[in-house]
Amino acid sequence: MTDLSANMIIERKSLHLELVERLRPLIIEGQMAPDKKVPEKALCEQFSVSRTPLREALKVLAAEGLVRLEPNRGAWVTAITIEEVEEVFPVLAVLEGLSGELACEKISDEEITSIRSLHDEMIQSYHDRDLATYFKLNQEIHLGILSAARNETLANSSMSLSARMLRARYAANMSDERWSEAVDEHNEIIRTLEARDGKKLASILIVHMKNKKSSVLRWLQNPPDVEAV
């Protein structure tokens, strides 16, 4: 008789990875403020977990650059510096451009349809002034283009650098002017992707990242007077 028990087991995501998914948005959206200590005890109580999975989650977030671990002092939310933005964004821009060019060569019709659907949802979230949803869909669009490039080395490099800038990229979208400009740029991105014009899409994505860098620098130099909760 065939043993069906092995096939019936449902694999559950590790608890610490579930915590990573819960904590990352708190940092990106500013609910855990930069340069503040991570309240480990409060988080354990909030999520009904022990210190062990929480600390494993914090190690993952530290690898992403969202927190820093200090011996005998615990975990602290990292702050983005102007120097780091100046260093990272030009590299990200090149990687984004390359992903767009390669994607136009290899993307399937089904992938384009999926990205177009995400784009339409993102535009609706813009009209609804729902920044959190807009940002989530925005990231999924960029990841969709990156995935369509079919280049694991490029994907790993881009995702690693992008994770370090997520908090700043989210906050920089708070400017109404920049948000409107970003939407216009995304409209052009999706049209060019659908036309499979790799060279043009590469140029658009590079400019898109340069504009994002400028908005992040403005945000860092003149941070809004908003207190994180």
UniProtKB/TrEMBL annotation:
<feature type="domain" description="HTH gntR-type">
    <location>
        <begin position="13"/>
        <end position="80"/>
    </location>
</feature>
<keyword id="KW-0805">Transcription regulation</keyword>
<dbReference type="InterPro" id="IPR008920">
    <property type="entry name" value="TF_FadR/GntR_C"/>
</dbReference>
<dbReference type="InterPro" id="IPR011711">
    <property type="entry name" value="GntR_C"/>
</dbReference>
<keyword id="KW-0238">DNA-binding</keyword>
<dbReference type="Pfam" id="PF00392">
    <property type="entry name" value="GntR"/>
</dbReference>
<dbReference type="Pfam" id="PF07729">
    <property type="entry name" value="FCD"/>
</dbReference>
<dbReference type="InterPro" id="IPR000524">
    <property type="entry name" value="Tscrpt_reg_HTH_GntR"/>
</dbReference>
<dbReference type="InterPro" id="IPR036388">
    <property type="entry name" value="WH-like_DNA-bd_sf"/>
</dbReference>
<keyword id="KW-0804">Transcription</keyword>
<protein>
    <submittedName>
        <fullName>GntR family transcriptional regulator</fullName>
    </submittedName>
</protein>
<dbReference type="InterPro" id="IPR036390">
    <property type="entry name" value="WH_DNA-bd_sf"/>
</dbReference>
